[in-house]
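Subject: Re: docking follow-up (zinc ion)

Dear J.,

Thanks for your patience while I sorted out the input files. As discussed at Tuesday's group meeting, I've set up the holo structure prediction with zinc ion included as the bound ligand rather than trying to dock it afterwards. The sequence and the ligand SMILES I used are pasted below, so you can double-check that they match what you have on your end before we go further.
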Amino acid sequence: MMMFLASNSAFSDACIRPVAYVFSAPAKIRVQEGLGVVEDAASDDWTRALLRVRDGRDREAFARLFRHFAPRIKAFLRRGGMGDAQAEDCVQDVMATLWHKAHLYDPTRATVATWVFTIARNRRIDMLRRVRPEPEDLPWGPEPEPDQADALALRQEAERLGVAIAQLPDAQRSLIERAFFGDVSHSEIAAETGLPLGTIKSRIRLALERLRQRLS
Amino acid sequence: MTITHHLTDQILLAHAGGALSEAFGLVVAAHLSMCDDCRARLGAFEAVGGAILETCGTVPVDDGGLAATFARIDAADRRTAPAPRRARGPLPGPIADYIGGGLDDVRWKPAGMGVRQAVLCTAEGATARLLHIPAGVAVPDHGHRGLEMTLVLRGAFRDEGMRFGPGDVEIADAATEHTPVAEHGADCICLAATDAPLRFNAFLPRIAQSFLRI
Ligand SMILES: [Zn+2]
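The structure tokens for the complex came back this morning:
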């Protein structure tokens, strides 16, 4: 199933794409290919490290997060066409935001990798001097002691999703990647994405419901 | 609130990737504020982004990167954190942010046929505006050329045989010939985003209201 249409006249010009990073030089990127799927053990480790940053301002835990995520954020930004100096600056900004907003992280609704991705995406949008309106914050923050079983189940779903993405045909996977590198407009995305998102969506939905119930 | 018309996968994936312009992003953010289901669907698309971040490879960062980041952290620790953004009255928070208050603070301008409008943002070639449509009246001929997203905030309209009530979002493209008509009984207030500067033609009123009054 093709996920993207090469062009869709009905949606043409519907959106201005991010065009220019100041020092864009894609030819110079040296990206080391990743090994594929993340193991749950590692993912669990990042969650614990982030909670240590949140609860204890733990610099050693932060350093481990930095060593893992900083080179990935940089690869992510470079793949989207950002120049080296700007990407370096952006990486530091994203990691600093991780520290400052650690109290907002909810492991029942997102893995650390997903949360880092959203911070990097938002920072990239800022740097392009674009505005991204955000929904209301939930009237209840993440719980101080999130449900371990829920957090584990979400990580496992994220792992399965990673496997499914890795198994997509090359052309489709590369188009999905480009959508997240900020390299396509919404008009290039077809109505059917072909991504198996039902289960992880249900997990997140459940987490939202439980939070609402505990509030009332 | 029972929402029946939600955001599409296409829109949610674009928003997860950061491709939507501000005006469409505002409609999405307002709907997400009212709809946990779409909030969870967006979370699923963002999980795809997380998986891609993990597998897109690595590029070495500067040797002093970690120390520089700690320096940023220490410098910023002295500043105060922003307060959480919450609802301020009946309007979804993101819209209230643009108005700077509630519906009473909207500075409406006439758009013909008793319809009033207030433009909220026009960045990146797309426009978001509030529309106040009197009960029973059709949205004036506005000839959008591309994507159009309309979120109902109060009242309801009918279009293409479907009803759109509070929280519902209608997504149309240039190929869609459609004429939203506000339901009888109550005025309809909605947030509409279009991809091109949209000009109402007050002198070409739709006649739909005359034959839709069944
Ligand atoms: Zn929805």
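A couple of observations from a first look. Residues 1-28, 34-39 of chain A have pLDDT under 50 and may be disordered. Residues B 3, 6-7, 31, 35, 37-38 surround zinc ion (CB under 6 Å).

Let me know if you'd like me to rerun anything.

Best regards,
T.
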